[in-house]
Amino acid sequence: VATRMAFRRRGLGLALTRAALDEARSLGLTTATLQASEEGRGVYAQLDFRARCQFAEYRPATSHE
User: Distance between CA atoms of 43 and 48, rounded to whole angstroms?
Assistant: First the structure.
């Protein structure tokens, strides 16, 4: 979920994520995972997500050929 700067801090991301989780629960799913930015930490903490690991991104060096 990404929210444009002008619309942040209004609960939109929380509502959309909660709706997706509710739908998953209604289908019998019991586990959800996400990869989030630091900016989203507060939203996901409200939904009881907890950090379990960190991801590293690999970008090969650009070629100068």
Answer: 9
For the chain, report the end-to-end CA distance as a whole number of angstroms: 38
Q: In the Cβ-directed half-sphere of 18, how many Cα atoms lie within 13 Å?
A: 10
> What is the number of residues in the chain?
65
In order of 54, 55, 56, 57, the CA distances from 61 in angstroms are 22, 19, 15, 13
Q: Tell me, what DSSP letter sits at residue 48? A: T
Per-residue pLDDT of the chain (65 residues; tens, 9 = 90+): 888 989 989 999 999 999 999 999 999 999 999 888 888 888 999 999 998 888 888 888 886 65
Predicted TM-score (pTM) of the model is 0.73
